[in-house]
Amino acid sequence: MTHLTPAKRAVRASTSLLRPIRTTPTIACRGQRLFHESGKAKAVEAVATRTPLTHEAPPPPFAPIQQPTKPVQPIRPSQQAFRTNQLNILEQSHKPEFYETISKIMDIRQRYVEDRSVFIESRDMVPLMLGLGASPEDMERLQVVSDHLYHDPTLPFRRSRNGRFCIDFDTNTLRRLEFQPFMLSLEEDFKRHDSGKIRRFDEVQDELQLNSVFQALFTFKAMILHGVHTVQRPKLEYDSNKWVTTLFNLRTVTTPDILGEPALEGVHSDGVDHTMTTYLGSNNMAPNSAATFMHGMGETTGSQLDEISPHHLLSRVQHKNFLDTLVIVDHERKHSLSAVYPVDKTKEATRDMLIFFTRKPVEKTHTSGSIDSLTPHQDMPMEVPIFVPRA
After folding, report:
1. What is the pLDDT of residues 164-221, one digit of tens each?
2. 3-class SS at 110?
């Protein structure tokens, strides 16, 4: 591999850091705090004062499933190919296996409350998605959706699309929000060459947002985060019953000329309340690639993995199989990732992910106060019911 400038900063992760994590046969990994794989553009945050952390009691009773308070927007002709695959939680409400799935997700949620992070392996995640009503055919479609990504606005080794969504606990629905540019600044704990720059990503299309597995992943996250108390970020509207998710579909690419780094910025957090990362697939990626490391909040933002303090290193995890998923309390854990290394150094290596950055809406004085609209997307509407615990 020649003139790999980013590689000089990339991690030479040691054997001890890359050791396999211990998992148990239960639905969620237990016994240690696992962590996050998010190394891309981040949803908005602000780092300043923090309120005390309060761990909550076990999850409350479920709210009854309700129809959306307003009708779902009509399906456009271009959406017809995806129409039958849309997730409809209401159709699952009379199936006993649906409530078995809910029970398993609540077990995961409780582990999340206790450990502030949880990793769910593919072998458990796939049945959960099907139990929520996702279509088996959409599993295959989701694995190739990253083939249609565009060039990233600031990172040459990445292809990307993004979109904004609202998890609305007033209506118990998930809906697509209109396009907004994206920005993270140094004051939001984002230390990279493009800090503070307005970035415009190509938008995710119907092939992703109307995929029932994708919608089930959103429903899963809504159930996990609902009612979980966290250290609050400044200038977010925590009285709101809505959550804004900036969704990134990302492909990290390593070639013979450039090293793909999922987290070029080093140790960081994502400027949100809850981050979820889901693995879609890879090609020609070496087994020691893209290990995710979780750090205590005392670790210096921007540190590369060869600079971190073992004192702040909490644990590690690797996304290896389709739908391997990690959820973390973003303002209570920092994280970093190793690079994507190729098996065959003469060929391209790729790694595909979905990254869900979820936070409360921002106040007007927030650095992203002017680019955080809650207006539904007019050209690519989507709204589906979700199932959530009672407030």
Report:
1. 999 999 999 999 999 988 766 566 556 566 555 767 899 999 999 999 999 999 999 9
2. helix
Tokens of 352: 């595909």
In this structure, which amino acid lies at residue 302?
G
Contact (Cβ atoms closer than 8 angstroms) between residue 297 and residue 333: yes
Tell me which H or E stretch contains 356. strand 349-359
So what's the architecture of 37-55+76-385 in CATH? Sandwich (2.60)
The vertex-332 CA angle with 182 and 368, nearest 5°, equals: 20
Q: Is pLDDT at 64 greater than 80 in this prediction?
A: no
| CB contact at 8 A, 351 and 305 | no
E-strand ranges in 216-273 read 242-254
Taking the CA atoms of residue 51, residue 298, residue 318 and residue 54 in that order, the dihedral angle to the nearest 10 degrees is: -20
Predicted confidence band of residue 97 (pLDDT cuts 50, 70, 90): very high
Domain boundaries, the chain: 37-55+76-385
Interval 76-84 mean pLDDT: 54
**Three-class SS state of 104:** helix
* Of 210, 166, 73, the residue nearest 375 (C-alpha): 166
